[in-house]
């Protein structure tokens, strides 16, 4: 059995699809399963059992079958959520419980961290574990992820293999339920389809021109490739960046969407919402040396190629 938490979500549902394609059919899907739109991500996938996240720990204690791996992708991922108690419960504490289960039952673990832990990038974007306690996330979501990373590194007991993955700006099919938190590509496709134009956030940082804010956009297929590779590798435990390794501008991204849709470019700028303006990352770029040094050699999908593939799936 392979357990995948956050199963109906964006990244996890893509992971389950890949596992199915690789011949893994005994998938235990853990989630809240209360969002009908989100649940459509699981249609057509082979799943042995669905387990509500609130009874997961009771369920796993009763299992006698061998659990081969846990992918803990589930989390409260809204970067505008300011309920610190809720974020601690769902992101930090829940992951601590899974960690301890993996020690008790000798199960290897991959869990989702986040590039939001890097804050403004004052210390760069290198996944050096010695720097993690010094990071300053810009929001409670980033804090909740960083708190677990710090906790995990301090533990004297650890799963025999574990990896925390700092996801950068992941995009791809299966994110339509995320609303405001969906990738700019999905928002751009919708706006362009409806209005023939796209509005981007204006820069409020004198070091960046409008549209020149840069992020490390990584295609979900590449993210899944890394997770599956680590599942088979099962060596070199630790915390790893997971981005493309190349920062690109939002203008690059939106122009690629226009091109993929066969539409003429029409781009304007609006103020960044006040509630996120002082928490906005103007630049992120994953340093991918650490993952490559342990043997991961697959290339990452160039932005234009990934956008073209994604837009073709949206059209379909």
From TrEMBL:
Record InterPro entries: Epimerase_deHydtase, Heptose_epim, NAD(P)-bd_dom_sf
Domain of life: Bacteria
Catalytic activity: ADP-D-glycero-beta-D-manno-heptose = ADP-L-glycero-beta-D-manno-heptose
Keyword NADP recorded: yes
Cofactor details (free text): Binds 1 NADP(+) per subunit.
Binding site for substrate: 169, 180, 187, 201-204, 215, 280
Binding site for NADP(+): 10-11, 31-32, 38, 53, 73-77, 145, 170, 178
Phosphoprotein recorded as keyword: no
E.C. numbers: 5.1.3.20
Residue ranges annotated for the NAD-dependent epimerase/dehydratase domain, each copy included: 2-243
Active site: 141, 178
Cofactor: NADP(+)
Functional pathway: Nucleotide-sugar biosynthesis; ADP-L-glycero-beta-D-manno-heptose biosynthesis; ADP-L-glycero-beta-D-manno-heptose from D-glycero-beta-D-manno-heptose 7-phosphate: step 4/4
Keywords noted in UniProt: Carbohydrate metabolism, Isomerase, NADP
Quaternary assembly: Homopentamer.
Domain remark text: Contains a large N-terminal NADP-binding domain, and a smaller C-terminal substrate-binding domain.
Function: Catalyzes the interconversion between ADP-D-glycero-beta-D-manno-heptose and ADP-L-glycero-beta-D-manno-heptose via an epimerization at carbon 6 of the heptose.
UniProt family annotation: Belongs to the NAD(P)-dependent epimerase/dehydratase family. HldD subfamily.
Name this polypeptide is given: ADP-L-glycero-D-manno-heptose-6-epimerase
Organism in which the protein naturally occurs: Marivirga lumbricoides
Phylogenetic lineage: Bacteria, Pseudomonadati, Bacteroidota, Cytophagia, Cytophagales
Gene: hldD
């Amino acid at each position: 059995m392979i357990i995948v938490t956050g199963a109906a979500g964006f990244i996890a549902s893509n992971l389950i699809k890949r596992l199915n394609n690789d011949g893994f059919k005994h998938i235990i899907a853990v989630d809240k399963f209360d969002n009908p739109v989100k649940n459509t991500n699981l249609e057509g996938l082979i799943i042995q059992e669905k387990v509500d996240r609130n009874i997961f720990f009771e369920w796993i204690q009763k299992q006698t079958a061998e659990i081969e791996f846990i992918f803990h992708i589930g989390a409260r991922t809204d970067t505008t959520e300011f309920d610190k108690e809720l974020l601690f419960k769902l992101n930090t504490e829940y992951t601590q419980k899974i960690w301890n289960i993996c020690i008790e039952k000798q199960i290897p673990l991959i869990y989702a961290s986040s590039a939001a832990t890097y804050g403004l990038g004052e210390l760069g974007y290198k996944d050096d574990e010695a720097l993690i306690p010094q990071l300053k996330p810009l929001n409670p979501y980033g804090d909740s992820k960083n708190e677990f990373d710090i906790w995990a590194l301090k533990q004297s007991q650890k799963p025999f293999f574990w990896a925390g993955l700092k996801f950068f700006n992941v995009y791809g099919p299966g994110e339509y339920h995320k609303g405001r938190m969906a990738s700019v590509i999905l928002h751009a496709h919708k706006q362009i389809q409806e209005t023939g134009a796209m509005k981007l956030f204006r820069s409020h940082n004198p070091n960046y021109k409008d549209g020149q804010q840069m992020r490390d956009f990584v295609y979900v297929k590449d993210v899944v490739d890394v997770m599956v590779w680590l599942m088979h590798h099962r060596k070199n435990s630790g915390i790893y960046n997971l981005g493309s390794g190349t920062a690109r501008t939002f203008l690059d991204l939106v122009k690629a969407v226009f091109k993929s849709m066969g539409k003429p470019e029409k781009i304007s700028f609006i103020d960044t919402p006040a509630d996120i303006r002082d928490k906005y990352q103007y630049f992120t770029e994953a340093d991918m040396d650490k993952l490559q040094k342990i043997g991961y050699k697959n290339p990452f999908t160039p932005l234009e190629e990934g956008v073209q593939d994604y837009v073709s799936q949206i059209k379909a």
